[in-house]
Amino acid sequence: MPAPFFRFMRPRRLLLLLLVVVTAWLINFLRLDERAWFWLEEGRLSVAEQQASIWLPGYRAVVQGKSLAGLERDETSGLTYNPASDTLFTVTGKHPQLVELSLDGEVLRRIPLSGFSDPEGVEVISGGRLAIIDERRRSMTAFTLDDDTLSLDAGDYPSFDLGFADAGNKGFEGIAWDSLNQRVLLGKERGPLGVFSLSLAGEDGAAGTLQALPSKRAFVRDISSLSFDARSGHTLVLSDESRLLLELDSHGQPVSFISLIGGLNGLHQSIKQAEGVTMDAAGNIYIVGEPNLLYVFSKDAPVVLPRQID
């Protein structure tokens, strides 16, 4: 049997070969070549264009890794801001429930979910209703939440079949409400990766069919969450695998991005498995990541690294 190829290589050459292989893998996995090219394009935006967008490079982490008390055994996924209550909502998949949070990450209430198999996203939509997408059931369920709601059963509300029956665990994870066009935006994790739109029709649920939106230049490996900013008309795309938050304009073209890797944008450590993103009325950006940690990014925040909050 012939001797292994690597046995005849000098240590220095072997190290160089391994470095080349690892570098090539990182470039392909994180799509660093596309990031570098866009970073050059991003720098050409005028001040006026930056002010008309969300402009992610202006954000810094001000709260990072805050544990969501009482949710240690659950898996939070998805995040939305409710302007009526000035609070956040997320869902958990391991033990399905809808969780309301204060803006500083305090758990305000937990509502058990029945009839949901794998809730992955939640969003405040038209009329102040909430919508939950279930990745495993490939469905979206919309409902009205009252202050005294103690539990929710999917069977009590209309659901919309999102299709892609063979998607398995690569279905829809992101959901956002486009208030300018009165439609839901849905982010499919992969296979195929993409952003879709779906029009709604009052209290009876969804109408029409899914329509694919242009997002081919979204240099991410997956989509784990979406958020829509009515002020700019732009969409935030969160990618867990790429450890990236990307801003797309109304045509699906990248406008700006920030990395979620530690040491950048005020982060002490990388955000592991980022699963939900939303923006509040003041423009602050919130991200939840497993294991159930909250991060907050604010614009014009001090560059000095904040103390980590437990």
**How far is the first residue's CA from the last residue's CA?**
57 Å
Radius of gyration: 21 Å
- Overall tally of structural domains: 1
Say how many strands there are: 21
Low-confidence stretches: 303-310
Mean pLDDT: 83
Describe the structure.
It is a single chain. It is built from three helices and 21 strands. The radius of gyration is 21 Å and the shape is globular. It has helices at 11-30, 32-42, 47-51; strands at residues 59-67, 76-82, 87-92, 97-101, 107-114, 119-124, 130-134, 139-143, 152-153, 159-161, 172-178, 183-188, 194-199, 211-213, 225-229, 234-239, 244-248, 254-259, 274-279, 285-289, 293-299. With 310 residues, the chain is mainly β. It has a five-stranded mixed sheet with strand order 2-3-4-5-9, with no helix packed on it. The chain has a four-stranded antiparallel sheet with strand order 1-21-20-19, with no helix packed on it. Helix content is 12%, strand content 38%.
Write the layout of secondary structure elements.
Elements: H1 11-30, H2 32-42, H3 47-51, E1 59-67, E2 76-82, E3 87-92, E4 97-101, E5 107-114, E6 119-124, E7 130-134, E8 139-143, E9 152-153, E10 159-161, E11 172-178, E12 183-188, E13 194-199, E14 211-213, E15 225-229, E16 234-239, E17 244-248, E18 254-259, E19 274-279, E20 285-289, E21 293-299
Parallel strand pairs: 5-9
Antiparallel strand pairs: 1-21, 2-3, 3-4, 4-5, 6-7, 7-8, 8-10, 11-12, 12-13, 13-14, 15-16, 16-17, 17-18, 19-20, 20-21
